[in-house]
Each structure stands twice: as C-alpha cells, then as structure tokens.
Design brief:
By secondary structure, this protein is of the alpha/beta class. The chain folds into 2 domains: 157 residues, Nucleotidyltransferase, domain 5; 167 residues, Nucleotidyltransferase, domain 5 (2-Layer Sandwich). It is globular and about 60 Å long. The structure holds 5'-O-[(R)-(carboxyoxy)(hydroxy)phosphoryl]adenosine (KG4) and zinc ion. Zinc ion binds next to helix 4.
C-alpha cells in the first residue's frame, strides 16, 4: 500500500510517500522558521498561507523523488490535529481534494501518534510494547504504547511543554526562535552546577511534569545577574536550565519504565533531538538496563513521513478507518488517548 502523508499542523509543510512493503520512498519538507523568526514565534495566519503555497510543489517533489505517478497512491493520510486550526485545514482540504480526484481513501492522523510511531521508520525499529516520551513544542507526555492504536497516557505536563520551556528560555536569553537548539548550543559552554535551578515535580510520585516554574526561575536568575550579564553567565544559566529540564525528563521516563515493567523507551518530538537529553538517557539506559529508540534526527521534528507511516499502519489494521465521503473536520485540540481504535485487527 502506497500512502501519501501530509503534515501541516504548525510551521512545517511536510509531504512523504510511504510504501508498506518498501518503506519510506520519499519525503520533503519546507520549514517556515525563517519567516516566523522576525515575530519571535509562529504567526498562525502566515503559517496557513505558506502551507497553501508549499504543499503542491512538495507533492510533485516527492512523486519525482520516489519515481511514482500520482495515480499509484493508494491512500492519503493528513494531520487532523492537534495544531493550528487554519494550518490543519490546509492539509485536510488538500488531502480530501486529492482523495476525491484520485478516488482514493483519506485518513486523518493524530499528530502525536505520528511522532510516537516515527521511530518505526528507523533502521532499528522498537518492537511493541514500549513507553513513549513525547517531547515537542506543544506537548510533554509519557505514553504506554501496546500497539498501533492502543495508547494510554501515563503522565503529562500540567502547564508548559518541554519545547515551550526551551523556547521561552531562549527568548529570555535573547536567542533566536525556535530556541531549543540555540539554548542547547549555549549550554554546551556553561559550567555544570554553576547555576542550580529547581527540578519541578521531580519527587511528586506521579508521572506528570511542570515546566512553567523552571522558566520563572530562569527569569528570576536573569533579573539578578542583569540583562547585560557576560556571555559566560548566560551560558551557565542555559546549562542550569537544560540540566534541570533533562533531569526531570529522564527521572520520569525511568519511573514510567519501572511502573509499566517495560524495558523499551521511545523518545519522539522536537526536544528528542536535544543532545544533552540523548546523552543523559543513554547513561540512564546503560545503568538501568533498558533500550532507548529515537527516530532519525531528520524525523524528530515535524514531517510528513511519520503521518504517512501512521496512516499506512492504521489502514492495514483497520481498512474501515478510511474516509471515502471526503467530508472532513480538523481537531485543533485532541487528546491522544481518545484515538484508541477498538476496530483494528492485530498485525
Ligand atoms: O515536534 P516539533 O517539531 O513540533 C511540535 O509538534 O511542537 O517540536 C518543536 C520543539 C520546539 O519547541 C523546539 O525548540 C524544540 O522542539 N527543539 C529542541 C531541539 N530541537 C527542537 N529543543 C531542545 N533541543 C533541541 N535540539
Ligand atoms: Zn510535532
């Protein structure tokens, strides 16, 4: 089955072709980061307009890359939510228009399901079941993943997402948007332990997170050292922030593995690209005897490949999940545990 995936939930337009026998045939991405940078964050209206401009040229690109004709597409998967309503509508309407024109089924995919299944595209994919740590700009969640369509939320953030905390800290430090990679780079020059920040909810006894207090701690420290602080002081603060955030993410992931009795951790979402988080998880895995799986670095942040894959896996297990009426909605807010699919057949 050849599935076209369309991702347009935020500031990346991603298209991809995934074949259930041959794997990922092609994927192409346009990032709007440069366009939004001047505003310090994503401007929803600009995002939607840009998705309209980019989607069809990217479709041509993936068809060419894969060397297949449009008519060979068997199904179309698109991100139905969560995300920016206007941006989601662009992907949804293009997917359904193509489906109608080609006479092929269409399936709406949960963006986070795409992220948590994305390590299945890697050279060494994780077998089910596993615990997934989803760390993106909008979400921070620990999930128990028994199979495709069988998800249970173990814990989640009560306020800011991990990526949001990185982005806000970057802004406070005068770094560019999106701040995650920039804060991570600056932290490399910081002295570990020079700035000790709180580890929110580290000992809360549950698997929930909270990051807004950490951002406030950064602000308080910054107002103490002054906005003209030297680069080393800023690097030390970045280091303090990253170490605190990483400590909590690692400790809660380890606790989730312990609670579920599992030995496999999948890390997905933009913050999964973070170098310090990867190093700390690698050390914890060696010490405690579990395995960590990541998507390829290029597929950590938003992309169409994860949506095409999720669409193919869902349709394989439950062909009735497809929409052939081409009436569509988007779901800007959508709880991941609401998408468990009781109609699916085991693989
Ligand atoms: O998954 P993603 O591309 O989009 C959402 O679904 O939100 O994640 C984007 C988030 C941003 O907050 C960005 O700052 C963060 O991931 N991010 C990172 C790194 N690369 C991206 N955070 C920390 N370190 C990184 N290397
Ligand atoms: Zn994402």
């Amino acid at each position: 089955m050849l599935v076209l995936g369309i991702e347009s939930s935020c500031d990346e337009t991603g298209l991809a072709l995934y074949d259930s026998r041959r794997g990922l045939l092609a994927h192409a991405l346009h990032s709007q980061i440069a366009m939004h940078r001047d505003y310090g964050g994503v401007v929803p209206e600009l995002a939607s307009r840009d998705h309209i401009r980019r989607a069809l040229p990217l479709l041509e690109q993936v068809l060419q890359q894969a060397g297949v004709a449009r008519t060979s597409i068997d199904a179309i998967a698109f991100t139905q939510g969560p995300g920016l309503a206007g941006a989601l509508l662009v992907g949804a309407s293009i997917a359904n228009a193509l489906g109608l024109a080609l006479g092929k089924p269409v399936i709406g995919i949960h963006h986070l399901e795409g992220h948590l299944l994305s390590p299945l595209l890697a050279q060494t994919p994780p077998p089910f079941p596993f615990v997934a740590l989803l760390v993106s700009g909008g979400h921070t969640q620990l999930m128990r993943v028994a199979d495709v369509g069988d998800y249970q939320t173990l814990g989640e953030t009560l306020d800011d997402a991990a990526g949001e905390a990185f982005d806000k800290t970057a802004k406070l430090l005068g770094l560019n948007y999106p701040g995650g990679p920039e804060v991570s780079r600056l932290a490399e020059f910081g002295t570990p332990g020079a700035v000790e920040l709180p580890r929110p909810m580290l000992h809360s006894g549950d698997l929930d997170f909270s990051f807004s207090g950490l951002k406030t701690a950064v602000l308080t420290h910054l107002s103490r050292i002054g906005s003209n602080a030297c680069e080393q002081a800023k690097a030390d603060l970045a280091r303090g922030f990253v170490d605190a955030a990483v400590d909590v993410l690692v400790a809660k992931s380890v606790a989730a593995l312990k609670r579920t009795g599992m030995k496999r951790l999948v890390v997905a979402g933009g913050v999964g690209a973070n170098r310090q988080l990867r190093e700390a998880l690698c050390a914890a895995a060696a010490k405690r005897g579990f395995d960590v799986y990541y998507p390829d670095l290029a597929l950590c942040t938003d992309n169409g490949a994860m949506i095409a894959l999720a669409g193919a896996l869902r349709l394989q297990r439950n062909p009735a999940a497809a929409n052939t009426s081409y009436a569509f909605t988007v779901k800007p807010r959508w709880d991941l545990s609401a998408i468990n699919d009781p109609g699916q057949q085991p693989a």
